[in-house]
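Hi W.,

Here's what went into the run:
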Amino acid sequence: SQTIHQWPATLVQPVGSPLSLECTVEGTSNPNLYWYRQAAGRGLQLLFYSVGIGQISSEVPQNLSASRPQDRQFILSSKKLLLSDSGFYLCAWKHRLPTEKLFFGSGTQLSVL
Amino acid sequence: GNSVTQMEGPVTLSEEAFLTINCTYTATGYPSLFWYVQYPGEGLQLLLKATKADDKGSNKGFEATYRKETTSFHLEKGSVQVSDSAVYFCALSGGNRDDKIIFGKGTRLHILP
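Here's what came out:
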């Protein structure tokens, strides 16, 4: 069966420090991969998505970047965190068809202080 | 671009009341429509979906009908229970082979015993 792993679960980082959040999927191949940020009053904001290795689509201009070095690995990064980067980050995957549902990871609560 | 608008919360109802959570969308092509639910302390999961006009998705007593003429996908349940208390997200996928999954801001539902 397919599983999605996202880590760490919580992270406290100082302003200006780098960030690396990792997400891996098991039990499937060629998934679409997604990074979302969930904030109160703003719902689920799509940050990046990827349909293949090295293929990244960015939805929101910001201080973050994403990479997909392997088929089932998706990484969210920042060189210098801002206070406004605080939030709950969710990784998700789905099969290729538009009718297929998303499977979500357990999320990372990021606090930038 | 594609967008989803859902009613603001929180929504507070008594047990056994009728529930409607409104969702309207803007999209090109023929998107698939979804309702996801986030129960307290749990991850996001699919509640129901509809992949073409006039389709009705249903699960756990919830229903939603894909109305292309009104670009709507309202969530309904005839008799809610305390266990239905959660945050509900409307989402759309695809249309013109688009791989983006766009979510609404979410509606928090409180059911009083």
